[in-house]
Amino acid sequence: MKNNSTELFPIIDEQGHTIGKATRKECHNGSKLLHPVIHLQIFNKYGNLYLQKRAMNKDIQPGKWDTAVGGHVDYGESVEDALFRETREELGITDFSPTFSFSYIFESEIEKEMVYSYYTIYDGLIVPDKDEVETGRFWSIDEIEQNIGKQIFTPNFEIEFQRLQSYLKGLL
After folding, report:
1. N or C: which end of the chain has fewer CB within 10 A?
2. SUPFAM superfamilies, from UniProt (predicted)?
């Protein structure tokens, strides 16, 4: 995995407006500088949800199951461009149609992120990047629900999964 501690992220206010910039290291050192990230939830035609198992060399939540795609928006990059870039980098997917679900602020001990969450239906080839992702697979919704709270998933995924369930029920 490349050393990306000097990568530049936009610092934003709670409305999503860029108010500055900082390095990855500055954003992840407990400063709680609010910065944008994207998440993509990938469903197959059967309603199963693809999750990635984070590589063991990740600085945050290594080895835990997480959202199919998650990544930072680079300084000067749009949220949509980051979504397509991260999806290509992490899973090799370039041909998909994302739908915006919602945004929310997630805060951990070391960072504070504005998460822009999208979903898509996709049944094509998925080729995880081994530097970013240990492995990945589709999970049934029941299987996910049975494993919530068992330290298998990242805390952020568990929070977002609950929001996603409510959001999708509102569409049906």
Report:
1. C
2. Nudix
